[in-house]
């Protein structure tokens, strides 16, 4: 086999790194944006959940794009969209324009990760893919790790718009290099896009998320809320039924006949809901309630992110030796314990305590994510791997977005009911009235973390049913059935 195109892979890595960095870059900035544009917590979280949702809608279509178009044209188009979105975001005069800019960014970034994974699979022989994917895993973890700390430092010294100013030159330089250096190495097939499937998946995922997000402002009894959730669920059911009938589906749902993949997928969905919620709730707690600076807020999350980065190759070695179940059970137990500790935050919980618990929580999660996902993918025959990775990426983005929307909505509703209760009990006392908003929001955050504990318990219960799958046995069985 020819020498892998390292220069080309490096360009794709930088593009993927910047798009991943951008996903978490804004989390620490959310309180500043809330203040600048005078919007609520449930509205501002759309900057994160909307970004994830666009990813979740477009990742299923990425399998079609990768087969239909050259990797060069796809990457250049994605980088143009991403750069244009970044420029619009830094210039945005209103919250609506900023939200639209984030959606444009996301439409570019959605194609990056599946494209990079495909190019790497095409560039490296099977015996060298493990090491290559190990580096890929580190990049996936390092970018979100740097995000909160970098954005914290920038917001401390400059405006939140600087977050986009930093990204623009890197994206532009990557685009120029891509134009001159990228070659086509992925095979093309003349396949047709099933437009109806794309419409159904967009209405399905979009309706569900929009319904959950709107509940914070409109209430769960609003026809606007349960109407959009119902439309989303019906569209998703129709989407799945249609995929089962198509010869070349947008997303291949037949992979769920492999029990370990189905189980790993369920655990990943539940875990994503719990993980993304903390990334949104923590900055609101430390900045809005405690008045901790954006830089210190970002630094608070850095040790946890570093631990996750270090553990990426370590869990790979432990997975090969012991399998996924033991790692998942230990990791999820740690996640449940630390999430429970977060459900008892007070007005004077120490900075060191919060940092320690957050780091332990990330350690727990690092022991679950990759091993569970790899164990599931190991059961799939090689031809199904692209569908497996597309399905995992889609579900992780969408469940993270729905989980965030759901838990922030719970926080918002709990905060409002607490404000009413505390206002009645402290009527006429000016000193007590001044603290009501913060006390109510603290109660709302603690309540959301309590719900997260129960979500994580579901994942722990499922983890006990995991069995070890050896890729060699599966491959052998495939060869026998083929022969």
Automatic annotation (TrEMBL):
> Its membrane topology, per UniProt?
Multi-pass membrane protein
GO CC, any one term: plasma membrane
Q: Which cellular compartments is it found in?
A: Cell membrane
* Limits of the Major facilitator superfamily (MFS) profile domain: 8-470
Alphabetically ordered keywords of this record = Cell membrane, Membrane, Transmembrane, Transmembrane helix, Transport
**Molecular function terms from GO:** transmembrane transporter activity
Listed transmembrane segments: 7-26, 46-66, 73-91, 103-124, 131-154, 160-180, 192-212, 224-241, 261-286, 298-319, 326-345, 351-373, 445-465
Query: Which InterPro entries does this one have?
Result: EmrB-like, MFS, MFS_dom, MFS_trans_sf
Q: Does the keyword Cell inner membrane apply?
A: no
Specify the signal sequence span.
none
Q: Which Pfam families match?
A: MFS_1
- Major localization class: membrane
Q: Which NCBIfam families match?
A: efflux_EmrB
The record's family statement is: Belongs to the major facilitator superfamily. EmrB family.
This protein's name: MFS transporter
Organism of this sequence? Domibacillus iocasae
